[in-house]
Amino acid sequence: LDTGRPVPDVRTELPGPLAREILAADTAITSPSLPRAYPLAPRRASGCVIEDVDGNLFLDFNAGIAVNSTGHTHPAVVAAVQAQAAELLHYSASDFYLPVYSQTCAALAATAPMPGPVRVFLTNSGAEAVDGALKLVRHATGRPYVISFFGAFHGRTYGAVTLTASKAKYHKGFGPLVPGVLHAPYAWSVRDPETGARSHDEDLTFDFLENTLFRHQVDPSEVAAVFVEPIQGEGGYLVPPQGWMRRLRELCDRHGILLVADEVQSGMGRTGAMWAIEHAGVAPDVLISAKGLASGLPLGAFIARAELMESWGAGAHGSTYGGSPVPCAAALATLEVIRDEGLLDNAAKVGAVLTEGLRDLAARHPSVVTDVRGVGLMIGVEFRTAAQSAAVQQGCFERGLLVLECGETTVRVSPPLVITADQARTALDILGDVLAGIPA
Ligand code: PMP
């Protein structure tokens, strides 16, 4: 699909006739809680190209919400999955020794941005990895409280959704949530609803933690960990200013608090480094991964300093499926492809082409685009109003470019790491056309 044929190629009105049938059947039977962005019904995909059920071709700048890191159906990943499936589909790694499980843990440990020895626990999803890490930090420290940030997204299971504070609707109706979770402001000031202007506030987080939270609500000696996304994902692709993460590390060290980096969206090469926290030169105590980890198969992980993981004993935490053989084989192949095909360099290089092109577009449409920010292939384009970002998402879809909103007024640009500069330029052309039709 991703060779020889020009993309995008949208031949039917969207949704096409077959997609309309699928939509009708889906709407009648699936949970209405699923927040469908637009009527895309994919049938098959390769590289950065998706074909829908009606034969329309799309350029994929979502990568299945930052999941299809090596591109769709990468031959090496497919071959590894097929070989593993023919050999052993499942045996629980909680109770038995699976070679592919320990190989995956070792391969992941080798990438960990932590200086000392680490241990790894594998899960089925990002949220499960977050919940596992939450249990671990409480168990390892004996401290009851944890802190996460406004704007954070950590998943939908009870622990993870309690840490999440990006949209009030994610909590509404579900309380009481998990006790002992406190929230602090991230490194961005609140956006001006009139102008859309945002600014960094270097001191906001630290003033709040030291002078408000630790003084009036909780003694820092009772805080087990701070959970942080090195770049906020669902909250709007927000990049903290240089030095912010280092200050957060120092604050944690001052109080014996663990630093947990949630790299579910920012990790596995998306920013041009294996882990986004590497750009800050900071080592976390626990690192959480999922999404891009297995190129689309369900796999999550938390990697912790060995002494933390060694604080809990047999049976303290487990999972029937977590780290099942086929997702593990996909993860091993994914790590190899990232290394062998130089995908970190590609993410940095094509990311720079995209960022420059998007900044040019922003300069041409100052009353529509208020900010372009990002690192590597994790780029957010922010609009003045939510109506504008919604219209851009829809306009791109109609022209065969798949992008997805995040935050309130931001469109994220997060293609597979195998994206080419030519494909990036095609996407920029489409975005330029779409922006030209967006009212100020
Ligand atoms: N953490 C982050 C940073 C995420 O972006 C997400 C998913 N968007 C999650 C956790 C939850 O992952 P999952 O959907 O696999 O549970």
Automatic annotation (TrEMBL):
Keywords: Aminotransferase, Pyridoxal phosphate, Transferase. GO terms for molecular function: transaminase activity. Its cofactor is pyridoxal 5'-phosphate. Pfam families: Aminotran_3. InterPro entries: Aminotrans_3 (IPR005814), Aminotrans_3_PPA_site (IPR049704), Class-III_PLP-dep_AT (IPR050103), PyrdxlP-dep_Trfase (IPR015424), PyrdxlP-dep_Trfase_major (IPR015421), PyrdxlP-dep_Trfase_small (IPR015422). Belongs to the class-III pyridoxal-phosphate-dependent aminotransferase family. This is Aminotransferase class III-fold pyridoxal phosphate-dependent enzyme. It comes from Actinokineospora guangxiensis.
